[in-house]
Amino acid sequence: MSFPEIISKLPEIGRRGLYRGSIPAILGQFSSTFLGTAVRIPCEVLKQRLQAGLFDNVGQAFVATWEQDGLRGFFRGTGATLCREVPFYVAGMGLYAESKKVVERLLERELGPLETIAVGALSGGLAAVVTTPFDVMKTRMMTAQGRSVSMSLIAFSILKHEGPLGLFKGAVPRFFWIAPLGAMNFAGYELAKKAMNKNEEGKAGGSD
Description:
The structure is a single chain. By secondary structure, the chain is mostly helical. The protein has one domain. The chain has nine helices and no strands. It starts with a helix and ends with a helix. Belongs to the mitochondrial carrier (TC 2.A.29) family. It is a multi-pass membrane protein.
């Protein structure tokens, strides 16, 4: 069903039906995202500080970060990163599912491989734009030296000195960086889904 159709059937589905299976889905998504970001965040901190020109090489960045903040310094921006990652995956999948339905309705057929890639790229890119404010805050937090700063303080500072558009700095490059990843991810998702459906049909045919 499309999103409007789901809304129209809410009384029939009911609150419990609407959230059925949500707890394992949330726990699974959060745990995988949390573990992934826990490994990537220290590398991201060093990368951001090098790109900002704060240090000349990785060794210098590592030593200075350890001396300034200890182990905690390598995990600056963890909250902002999680606030970016979890909504990014949710928004990307939601945009892809709805965009796919709209395009298939217009074409009156299933999407071909190139059309799937195009819709996946657009969905991934738009999800990246939507979550750009958290990416901006993450970068500012990771490149701040000397003292830890909170997300709320960073957000207030950006809004005060740069306005709302300051939260979307780098949105265009981020769109074009994420779009190819979205194309590959959703194309792979469709191939895996078709393979699983074909396997299920084969099992059903064999049992008959």
